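Entry: Transglutaminase-like enzyme, putative cysteine protease
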Amino acid sequence: MPVFKIKHITHYTYETPVRDSANQIILYPVKDEYQKVIKHDLSISRHPEVEIFKDYYGNEVGIFTQTEPHHELKIFSAIVVETIPRPLPADTLPPATQWQMLEDIRYDVAFIDYLKHEVFESVASLRQISLDLKEDTDTPFKTAVRFCDYVFTHFDYIKGVTTVDSTLDEILLLQAGVCQDFAHLLTAMLRFTQIPARYVSGYICPNKNGMRGEGATHAWAEVYIPEYGWLGLDPTNNCIAGENHVKLAVGRNFSDCSPVKGVYSGGAGHTLDVTVSVGYDDQDQFDPEPFFPAQPAMSSTVPAAPAKNSYQRHLEEMMIQQQQQQQ
């Protein structure tokens, strides 16, 4: 059973001092029978108090604020996690029986959110593609695998062509994207055929073989299979998510699972640098201290700036949102 050492560093740098930032992090790995967290170190610049709670979807979420003016925000997360392989679905029940079982849970509270599809201009086109791909003799499991292969085959993996806010219409037009986009596409297709599907945020640890999505946070989908439960499918790599996938959170879409997001008061100009690295043993100890050198306390007095009109001042005082795209 593999043990992975994952280091995730998020670094925001602001052009001018910002203040009153409110931030949310979902950087706490899922703990279940297939994923054991051996160690987790979390450090944040200026060392704010982090309040932790579980959200509606069962994810562990941390929130913190920083009211004093600051030029940067650094978040260092380091985990050691062991993953346990999960057997594949037996898929022996007749297809008609399995589809009826999905129909029976269609209005259950636990699945309603995972069956709703987004409203977008190309909805009729994508629905038709999904229905055409589905074979009458296919089980939900075979249908899901077929859809996963379709996304992998028909869409190019190209970093930078989409953003965190890209819509399904844009992805369908470009025929390209990254893991976040492909996970959204796959969940939409599955929901069109009444198969519950949810978005998953996490990491991919490819055992040094090289896979799409490594070096950043990763995303894939989970599909609900009758008499089995949730099965992970990675359309970016056209594979079933297994022991090389480390799960952080689940939800309807990226918005429910974003590893780091927040708002602040101040100028909109900022840069984001995200680094994810994976180790394959637990010999080295994580040391966040070099990442947070000692700094003098920042004065609350902001340097004088050129005069601005009222509209410019209003824009500067707006709460600017920040979050990162998954690759």
